[in-house]
Specification:
Helix content: 25-40%
Strand content: 15-25%
Radius of gyration: 22 Å
Number of helices: 13
Oligomer: single chain
Low-confidence stretches: 72-76
Strand order of the largest sheet: 4-3-5-6-7-13
CATH class of one domain: Alpha Beta
Largest sheet: 6 strands, parallel
Distance between the termini: 55 Å
CATH topology of one domain: Rossmann fold
Shape: globular
CATH superfamily of one domain: Response regulator
Order of helices and strands: HHHEEEHHEHEHEEHEHEHHEHEEHEE
Length: 355
């Protein structure tokens, strides 16, 4: 089982305190020292120290360093809230999409007096029920994947569960996810306002509700606006850069018949841009491209990516809110909270002038 490196750094410092190797008033490693020790960026090390500072475990003094305060490292008086990611999303460095969700959830959990526990799983979901009694678990958040059919162990312990960034179609648990239909249609309306009528789609993973809903929204908008053959211009994707790049390379003859591309997420949009540039296509001069999510990378692409912003920190905070609401009365009627989206206009979309 893996976990984000900033959590490993926090756990390492906490262990040193518990073993008496770091005492109140002692200076903690600097960001540069932690960066070298754990082979991570200084940004990751900084987030670990800021997270401990927010919990009251350390005090950061500008120009002097970070020092142990002597308080309990994680402030876990009310019990634990678990945040669980698929192993493929946990990675070594912060995930550009899920890290803000995780940080939002962590802040909300800490504010409510809960210890925030992050873990990743890869097909070993039975470990959840095995550890329930030991971990004082008061709520569980599953981020980025649907495990609604495999949470009986949690439900039998009357532990609230919320799906984050994924709709629970079974109706068993609460869900917090983006307003996909509204976001997609706003993006496509923007393209239409620039004269684009034939718009290709780089799909996400359609087994995931975000991928499925964004695809359905694309088809609905296209049919309503006269692009009846839209289903023939959907290219396979799974939210990953390389998959989108290869898909566009393989489906280039389809893409070149369109004046714009809507990608299911920003990483797919960036993969599409890379493939199109390799084919000599100018973005947005020849083909406009629009994404979804507004990850940080989208601001630094060339051209800067027009996209649909999802308030990812709010998604994490809302997930913790759902768990708090369930603490008193368990699983009455499932709640679906949709996080609002908003169009971010940058430089990857231009006016279409039919030649």
């Amino acid at each position: 089982m893996g976990m984000p490196k900033y959590v490993l750094i926090k756990n390492y410092i906490s262990k040193l305190v518990k073993e008496g190797k770091l005492k109140p008033g002692d200076r903690v490693f600097s960001e540069a020292e932690l960066s070298r020790k754990f082979s991570v960026t200084e940004m990751t090390a900084r987030h670990a120290l800021e997270s401990l500072s927010g919990e009251g475990a350390v005090s950061r003094i500008h120009g002097k360093g970070t020092f142990i305060t002597g308080k309990d490292s994680f402030g876990s008086g009310n019990g634990n809230l678990w945040f669980i990611l698929p192993e493929k999303l946990a990675g070594i460095e912060p995930n550009p999409y899920y890290s803000p969700i995780l940080w939002g959830a962590e802040r909300a959990a800490r504010k409510a007096g809960y210890r925030f526990v992050i873990m990743s799983i890869d097909g070993q979901k039975e470990i959840l029920s095995e550890r329930i009694d030991m971990e004082r678990v008061k709520g569980v958040m599953f981020a980025g994947f649907d495990v609604s059919g495999r949470i009986n162990g949690l439900l039998s312990h009357n532990i609230p569960v919320v799906m984050v960034d994924c709709l629970d179609r079974s109706g068993v648990s609460d869900s917090v996810c983006p307003d996909n239909f509204s976001g997609v249609k706003e993006a496509l309306k923007h393209l239409a306002s620039k004269g684009h009528r034939k718009i290709a789609h780089i799909a996400g993973d359609i087994k995931h509700t975000n991928g499925d809903e964004r695809k359905q929204a694309y088809l609905e908008f296209s049919y309503d606006n006269g692009f009846k053959e839209a289903k023939n211009f959907i290219l396979k994707g799974d939210f990953l850069f390389m998959t989108a790049k290869k898909s566009v390379e393989a489906g280039f003859e389809k893409i070149r018949k369109c004046s714009a591309v809507f990608a299911a997420n920003d990483m797919s949009a960036l993969g599409a841009i890379a493939a199109l540039k390799n084919k000599g296509v100018r973005i947005p001069g020849d083909i406009s491209v629009i994404g979804f999510d507004d990850i940080d990378f989208s601001k630094y692409s060339s051209p800067e990516l027009t996209t649909v912003r999802v308030d990812k920190c709010s998604m994490g905070e809302a997930a913790v809110g759902c768990l708090m609401e369930r603490a008193g009365g368990m699983f009455s009627k499932k709640k679906v909270k949709r996080i609002k989206t908003g169009l971010v206009i940058r430089n990857s979309v231009s006016q279409f002038n039919k030649k």
